[in-house]
Amino acid sequence: MSELKNDRFIKALLRQPLDRTPVWMMRQAGRYLPEYRATRAQAGDFMSLCKNTELACEVTMQPLERYELDAAILFSDILTIPDAMGLGLYFEEGEGPKFRKPVRTEADIEKLEVINTASDLPYVTDAVSMIRRELNGRVPLIGFSGSPWTLATYMVEGQSSRDFARAKTMLYTQPEVMHQLLEKLALSVIDYLNAQIRAGAQVVQIFDTWGGALSHAAYQEFSLAYMEKIVANLITHADGREVPVILFTKGGGHWLEAMADSGCHALGLDWTVDIGSARGRVGNKVALQGNMDPAVLRADPATIEREVASILTSYGDNPGHIFNLGHGITPDIDPANVKVFIDAVHKFSAN
Questions:
Q1: In a domain, 168, yes or no
Q2: Which residues neighbour 338 within 8 Å (Cβ) at sequence distance 6 or greater?
Q3: Number of folded domains that form the chain
Q4: Per-residue pLDDT of the chain (351 residues; tens, 9 = 90+)
Q5: Overall pTM surpassing 0.70 (yes/no)
Q6: Is 112 inside a domain boundary?
Q7: Phi-psi bin for 283: left (phi > 0), alpha (psi -120 to 50), beta?
Q8: Phi and psi for 289 in degrees, rounded to 5?
């Protein structure tokens, strides 16, 4: 594999000093880009795009052609694992993901098999390998997965949810059944992320999108414990480099200290947390990634620049900051505002 020409992102994850703060965006290859929309139309639908190696590679590279980003992230979806378990994932326009066969009973969960990525999700690892070749050392490649709890919510609800009534009912009335599901998912995520690392991913991120919906005690038992298990079983070095792990729990500001003890290298922060306060709480244990509210990108350039400068000032001169949004970029954002954002990170963080 080719040598990294820009390793700012990896160095920041390892809390090493840098000339400027690296920046990337969650969902940076997405619907806000007209070229992405054109490629998705060519593919036919979202999952067809994910499963087409060449097109998945193409959309992964699109934001790097427009912007001076410090990382690429595999174009895929967190729900590939439950899809591979046979739940029948599909997307309805404007309604998000749905499953034809949600898991509602202990018998449903007993039937589920832990995935074997090589045979069940080869399109993902094929895309990782192709993207890594295409990048040719330009920037590092991030692989990712959903967390077991987040995957479980979709599998039990059968779709997105506001209150997670079915998943939480199972958690509180049949905790042993929920643990059975989470254990199978944790083993699947370990296999999936290790397969991505072997295929060429240089960093991995676990997206715990719905961890923040849990109570304090339930988060520790039903979300964080399984992410700790995953981190402990990942490949730690590849291509002669450490492979850093980022944990991102949306709404996880209450648990930063516990998350920092998980064995991960970095915590992703949403916009509800002050990054300077977070730095004070976790000390030098982990790097921090974040955390501008994506809605700021709807504002005028001066407001975007002010917000970037404010976050950088709050973080201070400590090493170990990766600038990102506090969640994924939304489809309505003007691509010109993204350039303002990225240029502002470069301008205000340069030493």
A1: yes
A2: 25, 32, 66, 67, 297, 329
A3: 1
A4: 568 999 999 999 999 999 999 999 999 999 999 999 999 999 999 999 999 999 999 999 999 999 999 999 999 999 999 999 999 999 877 778 999 999 999 999 999 999 999 999 999 999 999 999 999 999 999 999 999 999 999 999 999 999 999 999 999 999 999 999 999 999 999 999 999 999 999 999 999 999 999 999 999 999 999 999 999 999 999 999 999 999 999 999 999 999 999 999 999 999 999 999 999 999 999 999 999 999 999 999 999 999 999 999 999 998 999 999 999 999 999 999 999 999 999 999 998
A5: yes
A6: yes
A7: left
A8: -120, 130
Give the residue numbers annotated as catalytic, written as ranges: 27, 31, 40, 77, 154
Secondary structure (DSSP) of 162-196: SS-HHHHHHHHH-HHHHHHHHHHHHHHHHHHHHHH
Task: Supply the range of the domain harboring residue 141.
Answer: 8-294+319-332
| Token digits of residue 121 | 């999700």
What CATH number does the domain containing 74 carry? 3.20.20.210
CB-CB neighbours of 34 under 10 Å: 10
